Amino acid sequence: MAAYWKAGRGIRCRRGLILLPRHRPDRGRFMARGYNWKFDIPPEIDEHSIAKHRVLRRYVENYIQILCLNPRRECLRLVVVDGFCGGGLYQTSSGEPHLGSPLILRQALQAGRAFVQTRRVEMGMHRPFDLEATLHLNDNDADAIKSLRAQLATCPKNEWAPTTHVTQLDFNMAAAQLITAYKHSRRSPRIIFVLDQYGFTQTTLPVMKSIFTTFPKAEIVLTFAVDALTNFASPETRELYRRILAKTGFDEVVSAERLTELKAEDHGAKHVIQTLLLREVFPQTGAAYATPFFVIPRQSRRGYWLVHLANNTRANDEMKRLHWQEHNHFMHFGAEGVGILAFDPVRLDETPQYTFDFGDIAQQRTSSALHHDLPKLVHDQFSAGTNVGTLLERIANETPATRDMVQQVLFELGRTGEIEMRTQHGRQRKHVDRLQLLDEIHPRRQFFLFR
Ligand SMILES: C[S@@+](CC[C@H](N)C(=O)[O-])C[C@H]1O[C@@H](n2cnc3c(N)ncnc32)[C@H](O)[C@@H]1O
Fold first, then answer.
1. Under CATH, which architecture does the 361-450 domain have?
2. For the segment 72-88, what is each residue's pLDDT rounded down to a tens digit?
3. Are the beta carbons of 442 and 420 closer than 8 angstroms?
4. CATH of domain 2-226+291-346
5. Predicted confidence band at 364 (pLDDT cuts at 50, 70, 90)?
């Protein structure tokens, strides 16, 4: 990491750590000014943003490995767009340097490529593999771009690196240019858009729509300050909301009247608004799956969503797995089993007895909620039976549980006879690891007698 830090003004302490001069012109995303890379001293980053960076890093590394599981694949063409990339360097609360998303994405691409190559060598495979990766880094702030260029200049020149392009544009303009550039390319590339905006207005619905229309296999990792959007909705702020919704293009789907009246009606309306965004606005992007989990910064009680939008359940599952790994930093305020959008009105405003933080207790509660919900869902929605793969797809948007967690519960329900589970050939599985996507699921015949 020190290599990236030559441009800064660090001082060495006895433990060999580089402590940075403290400078707090800003304290995070909800301050009007946001991060500031104007001075030589990098802005301070909070621990939740660091957790978010870990998710991003692991996601890109795992994405490459998962797509390259097929040993016959010789090349993966991957484009990563960091649309709101910032200045590339922060300091932690204890003054240690911490890389920003552009350098984290660069390292993740390097690591993903190295993992695949190493694994192939270990497996004795002679077929070559290479990653053809392009990293587009964009920010509209001149100081951020200056700082970023200084960080990139310190990267070693003699190592493999993605082809990197840096632009200083408004994101809408950058997105339009990228869509045009890649639309006509010979083979449609895999594209991941990392859209770490400050609030909720800089990434518009029409832009997300045109990303998924042009590249159906694209994925978007979007920061969306949902609490900031919902907290101030009231009849008095209707005019402001009209402008906000027009700016984001959300007005195609939801009107300012509907949003502000909902909030005025009752206490739980904030959650109804979130439901509305998830049920009505995000599907309009063209992405079939969305993960709506919260990051709650410590210094601000206003949470934001790290929304992952994709058309692929495997990708949706991978993002959920990372949330469970990063427990304590992510929160979920909906139902634990199936019915993700059944928001609990007792939320941030009160002191909740229990918070779903993706930790061990949340895992137990999710498992027992699924034990309750799945037999009912199978009975109500699949009376003629279904299979594991179809059920997983059906509930991907409805549960915080990963596929492994759902499969474990299905297996247990099959064993206790709460649902009927069998292979395509009518046999019982002996172990959950053997469960296949085509395994059949049927409701138990006397379902109602026992509920
Ligand atoms: C949350 S910060 C980015 C942090 C960075 N992704 C990271 O994790 O290291 C948001 C960035 O968006 C930039 N920004 C704000 N509005 C923008 C716009 N309309 N187009 C492009 N960049 C914008 C800001 O200058 C700021 O650097």
1. Orthogonal Bundle (1.10)
2. 899 999 999 999 999 99
3. yes
4. 3.40.50
5. very high
